[in-house]
Amino acid sequence: MSNDDRSSALWVTANERFKSKSGDWMAIGVIAAVLAHGALFALFPEMTAADIDFTGDEAEVVDLPPEVEIPPPPEQISRPATPRVAAAALDEDITIARTDFESNPVENLPPPPAGARPSDVPSYIPRDVEPVLKNRAELLRLAQQRYPSILRDSGISGTVGVYFFVSASGEVTNAVVQSSSGYPQFDQVALDIAQQGEFDPAMNRDRPVGVWIVLPIQFSTRG
């Protein structure tokens, strides 16, 4: 037998021995695996899935707000037509009557209407002696004290012409605006101040008589 034949015989024999032993090892491995799994199921408690339970809030139906319809943008406003001014001819001889106290004396007032009391409306009542204001300084002080603050702060001055009815006893029983200052606040304060006037009464044939007079009440920020 040659050396090659002897080597081949040894190789076949070793291969056969390995195959026979591998079958034994395979059987041992299978048995060990079965025993191991059996031990796992026997030694460890039975595992169960937890009961997972949950509750949720009940669904609530919510009413949606009504859909708001957005109006379309307004149409562009057309520009107004250019006004046409008619020509007017003015007479050059037209004059405007003056409104100062000197040009409108009380003597020019009409007489009181029939059936009315002399103190109801400004009217001319005859007299020989004019009434004399006794507390002029007090009225000036009241004009400064009651000066409307909104007008004072704005630096606005004004003068109100006031009709006073001075009774036969020298008291002021009625007052009317003769010429407005242009500011209702000044006019109202002037009427309130006029009620505080004190006079020596007018005289007619040596007898006291109630008459209308006109006096200016001035409001000035210059003090």
Q: From N to C, what is the helix and strand string?
A: HEHHEEHEEEE
Query: How much strand?
Result: 15-25%
Q: Helical stretch count? A: 4
CATH fourth-tier homologous superfamily of the domain at 117-219: TonB
Oligomer: single chain
CATH class bucket of the domain at 117-219:
Alpha Beta
Q: What do you see in this structure?
A:
The chain is an alpha+beta fold. Among the domains are: 1-39; 117-219, 2-Layer Sandwich (TolA/TonB C-terminal domain), CATH 3.30.2420. It has helices spanning 3-43, 136-145, 149-153, 184-194; strands at residues 132-133, 158-166, 172-179, 199-200, 202-204, 207-209, 211-219. The termini are far apart.
Question: Strands, helices and their partners?
Answer:
Elements: H1 3-43, E1 132-133, H2 136-145, H3 149-153, E2 158-166, E3 172-179, H4 184-194, E4 199-200, E5 202-204, E6 207-209, E7 211-219
Antiparallel strand pairs: 1-4, 2-3, 2-7, 5-6
